[in-house]
């Protein structure tokens, strides 16, 4: 796994991967439907098969969850950017469940992979330079030249009677950059995590105490970027420690039933009693994420590997495309039509843009090195 690149649960480019999976009938059908992923499909070396399959599967699950969440967000009563006369209790409930762990899972995957980096000798300056290029270039280019123009096309309500300078400022300061807030937040987490690991010299009790303290204090900070960085740092290190101690923890047989039971009970409690207490939601997120790492199959197929290869592009481009759909059809299209339209247009459009950028040797826009 390339530890110097973007590792956010959205994208982690495997540089030494080879195909080892057999193509079943269902996969063959998928090849006909989606011919783009026939070529350059990543493969997993035999010695790392189990570990890489787990992370690839979790990354694909994470990106599908965020895309699904954005496709149904219009039915969330707390989201008022676009309006719809249609309501769906099921979709509102599904969105609440997704919100409990989708971003936490992303950051835990980054921490899981960051553990490999800390096991090698690395220079902080060099590491942070790579992370900055990998994360900030897509943030700036896509934020300024993709997100803002598409929002204008989609008649984005907050842009009404707002100057262009103010709009650009709101994106650059992460106050209104949509889904792209994840990128500067992850960079901030990498900086904090690197400093903490060096400062504590791997004294894990001290490290855990500092991370927990920052998590508790995060809601009281003044900057959005500081709030998100200190909040999700907790789940970043959760993934870090799962990588380090997961085999010992998950080898306990009783944990199988405990995780499943506790996860179901916590989700039910949050939904039934509409409880948004931070302690309860935190324990719910921890339980769900631990369960995913424990129960996620270690086997995969070429279609999942193909999605994993393109997940960063899907993440970067899907959400603004859905603004166009919601602006045009949210008033007339019921959920059964609008949600599939969002999914197809969001994922399909993202893949087309991703492959186009690679074809014209502009892969740096999506945080990749151009092939020579």
Give the overall shape: globular
Distance between the termini: 21 Å
Secondary structure: number of strands = 0
Largest sheet: none
Structural class: mainly alpha
Give the rounded overall mean pLDDT.
84
List the uncertain runs.
1-39, 43-51
Measured by DSSP, the beta-strand proportion falls in under 5%
Secondary-structure element order, as H and E? HHHHHHHHHHHHHH
Helix fraction by DSSP (H/I, runs of at least 4): 55-70%
* Radius of gyration, taken over Cα atoms and rounded to an integer in Å: 20 Å
Number of helices: 14
Protein architecture, described:
- This protein is mainly alpha-helical and 372 residues long.
- It has 14 helices and no strands.
- Helix 4 packs across helix 9, helix 8 crosses helix 9 and helix 10 runs antiparallel to helix 11.
- The longest helix is centred in the middle third of the chain and has 30 residues.
- The N terminus is likely disordered.
């Amino acid at each position: 796994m390339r530890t110097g690149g973007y590792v956010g649960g959205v994208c982690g480019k495997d540089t030494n991967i080879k195909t080892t999976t057999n193509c079943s009938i269902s996969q063959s059908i998928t090849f006909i439907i989606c011919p783009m992923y026939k070529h350059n499909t990543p493969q997993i070396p035999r010695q790392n098969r189990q570990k890489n399959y787990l992370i690839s599967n979790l990354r694909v699950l994470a990106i599908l969850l965020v895309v699904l969440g954005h496709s149904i967000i219009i039915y969330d009563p707390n989201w008022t950017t676009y309006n719809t006369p249609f309501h769906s209790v099921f979709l509102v409930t599904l969105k609440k469940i997704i919100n409990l762990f989708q971003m936490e899972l992303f950051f835990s995957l980054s921490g899981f992979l960051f553990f490999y980096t800390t096991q090698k000798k690395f220079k902080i300056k060099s590491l942070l330079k790579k992370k900055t290029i990998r994360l900030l270039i897509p943030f700036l280019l896509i934020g300024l030249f993709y997100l803002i123009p598409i929002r204008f096309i989609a008649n984005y309500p907050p842009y009404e009677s707002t100057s262009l300078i103010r709009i650009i400022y709101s994106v650059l300061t992460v106050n209104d950059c949509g889904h792209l807030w994840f990128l500067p937040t992850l960079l901030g987490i990498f900086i904090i995590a690197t400093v903490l690991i060096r400062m504590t010299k791997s004294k894990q009790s001290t490290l855990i105490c500092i991370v927990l303290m920052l998590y508790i204090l995060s809601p009281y900070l003044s900057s959005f970027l500081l709030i998100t960085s200190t909040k999700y740092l907790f789940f970043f290190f959760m993934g870090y420690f799962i990588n380090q101690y997961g085999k010992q923890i998950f080898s306990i047989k009783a944990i199988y039933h405990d995780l499943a039971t506790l996860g179901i009970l916590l989700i039910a409690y949050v939904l039934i009693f509409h409880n948004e207490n931070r302690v309860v939601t935190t324990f719910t997120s921890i339980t769900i994420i631990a369960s995913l790492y424990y129960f996620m199959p270690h086997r995969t197929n070429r279609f999942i590997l193909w999605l994993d290869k393109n997940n960063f592009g899907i993440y970067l481009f899907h959400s603004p495309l859905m603004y166009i759909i919601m602006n045009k059809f949210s008033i007339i299209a019921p959920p059964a039509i609008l949600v599939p339209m969002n999914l197809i247009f969001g994922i399909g459009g993202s893949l087309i843009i991703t492959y186009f950028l690679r074809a014209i040797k502009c892969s740096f826009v999506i945080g990749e090195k151009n092939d020579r």
